[in-house]
Design brief:
mainly alpha, 3 helices, about 25% helix, flat
Length: about 120
C-alpha cells in the first residue's frame, strides 16, 4: 500500500485530495470485485467442474448393467435396530414415526447456527 499512500488524487471537482490507502470506497470496491469475479471452477449448481485433458488409449471402461424391474424386496436386514421402540415396519419413508423432513432440517439448521455461522469472519 506504500504506492497508494504516496499518491494524492483529486476528486472530480479538483478540490479534495483522496488517499486511496485510507478511502473506504477502495475496500468496498475490492469486496465487490471479489464477489462478482468468475467462479469458473463451479457450474450453475455449485458443483465442482472437472476437465479431462487426455485419456490414454489403454484405458478400458467396464460395462454397466442396468436394473430394469424390481418386483419385490423379500427382506431388509439390519434396519430393525434403528427403528423407534414399538415400530416393526416403515410404512412411508417420507415420515418416520410421524416426523417429516423437519426431523432432519431443524437439527441441521441448529448445527449450522452453532457451529459454522459462529466461526465466520469477514475481513
Amino acid at each position: 500500500m506504500a504506492y497508494f499512500e504516496a499518491t494524492n488524487l483529486l476528486d472530480a471537482t479538483g478540490n479534495t485530495r483522496i488517499n486511496p490507502a485510507t478511502e473506504d470506497s477502495v475496500v468496498l470496491l475490492r469486496r465487490i470485485l471479489k464477489l462478482i469475479e468468475t467462479q469458473s471452477a463451479t457450474d450453475a449448481q455449485q458443483r465442482q467442474r472437472v476437465t479431462i485433458d487426455n485419456i490414454s488409449a489403454s484405458l478400458t471402461l467396464g460395462t454397466v448393467s442396468t436394473v430394469t424391474t424390481v418386483s419385490t424386496v423379500t427382506a431388509v436386514t439390519g434396519i430393525t435396530n434403528a427403528l423407534p421402540a414399538g415400530t416393526n415396519t416403515i410404512g412411508n419413508i417420507g415420515t418416520l414415526n410421524g416426523w417429516n423432513q423437519q426431523m432432519f432440517s431443524d437439527p441441521a439448521r441448529q448445527a449450522y447456527n452453532t457451529g459454522i455461522r459462529n466461526r465466520l469472519t469477514f475481513a
